[in-house]
Design brief:
Transmembrane segments: 46-67, 79-102, 114-134, 141-162, 174-194, 215-232, 244-263
Radius of gyration: 21 Å
Number of helices: 10
Strand content: under 5%
Shape: globular
Subcellular location: Membrane
Order of helices and strands: HHHHHHHHHH
Number of domains: 2
Pathway: Porphyrin-containing compound metabolism
Oligomer: single chain
Protein name: Cytochrome oxidase assembly
Keywords: Cell membrane, Disulfide bond, Heme biosynthesis, Iron, Membrane, Metal-binding, Oxidoreductase, Transmembrane, Transmembrane helix
Helix content: 55-70%
Length: 279
């Protein structure tokens, strides 16, 4: 739901629908529900409706971690932090669509950047809650996470404005963020599983190797986040910025591939128990 919300937000902004609803929030052109046809008002309203449902589900996930059994403290903390910063995201979103309305100058680069960064933070926290809440990792999951990271970053490059493969139209922009966030989540999982590697005794993955994997994945994540920021109109996208964007994409792919290459010798996970001799 959060991943789809992210892409809906990008699509809404790219079509200019964020300026619809007569710069009103929470009403839309003096209506609670606009005409249910594909038009800027409906696109903006649908984005808000999806965000509202997703927000309640985020709260529900946090409650589940506290009321359910077997969840570790870190899982509860990640889910709770996502809820804690959710009001900030709602506030920034409201400011963004009130162009010279309730908040003068709301539709600006700075508010767009804040909206994107806070949304990415919530998405990352939910990803960690999912990863940590899903039980102990293993070597196979670690390799899969690295593979998803590479696939997501490469796919995002095809939709990116830096690569002249497709016109960077609203659908391509939404696809860029879906694939880019998938790659981001793969990197988050790679770091999380590699952190547990020594404790879980993955075959062929000692503390030093795990540290290398974490460092490579973290570097790839930093470069990928840079491309996600450049995917919006936060700078005047000149030829120089396009080259910087291409370099960032290349670095993200190379470092993610390096993490996957480092894991090539990792086998199945051991259960951590000592074998019984004499039988």
């Amino acid at each position: 739901m959060t991943l789809v919300l992210f892409s809906l937000g990008v699509y809404t902004a790219a079509t200019g629908s964020g300026l619809a609803c007569q710069a009103q929030w929470p009403l839309c052109s003096d209506q609670l529900i606009p005409a249910l046809t594909i038009n800027p008002d409906f696109i903006e309203w649908f984005h808000r409706a999806w965000a509202m449902v997703t927000g309640f589900l985020i709260i529900g996930v946090a409650g589940w971690t506290w009321l359910g059994s077997g969840f570790e403290r870190r899982t509860k903390l990640a889910a709770t932090l996502a809820v804690a910063i959710l009001p900030l995201q709602i506030t920034v979103g409201a400011i963004t669509v009130t162009l010279s309305g309730l908040v003068p100058g709301g539709y600006t680069v700075s508010t767009h950047a804040a909206h994107l960064i806070v949304a990415l933070t919530i998405f990352t926290l939910l990803g960690l809650a999912t990863i940590w809440g899903g039980g102990r990792g293993n070597a196979r999951l670690l390799r899969v996470a690295a593979g998803i990271a590479i696939a997501g970053i490469v796919a995002s490059a095809l939709f990116s404005r830096a690569v002249p493969f497709l016109t960077y139209a609203p659908p391509a922009q939404a696809a860029f963020y879906v694939t880019g966030l998938a790659g981001h989540l793969g990197l988050v999982a790679t770091i999380a599983y590699a952190t547990e590697a020594a404790r879980n005794r993955y075959d062929g993955l000692d503390a030093g190797t795990a540290g290398t994997v974490r460092a490579l994945a973290a570097g790839s994540m930093a470069a990928l986040v840079g491309t996600l920021l450049l995917g919006r109109d936060l700078v005047l996208y000149t030829a120089t910025w396009q080259q910087i964007n291409l370099v960032a994409l290349g670095v993200a792919v190379a470092l993610a591939a390096g993490a996957a290459w480092t894991l090539r010798g990792v086998d199945e996970v051991r259960d951590g128990t000592a074998p019984i001799g004499g039988d």
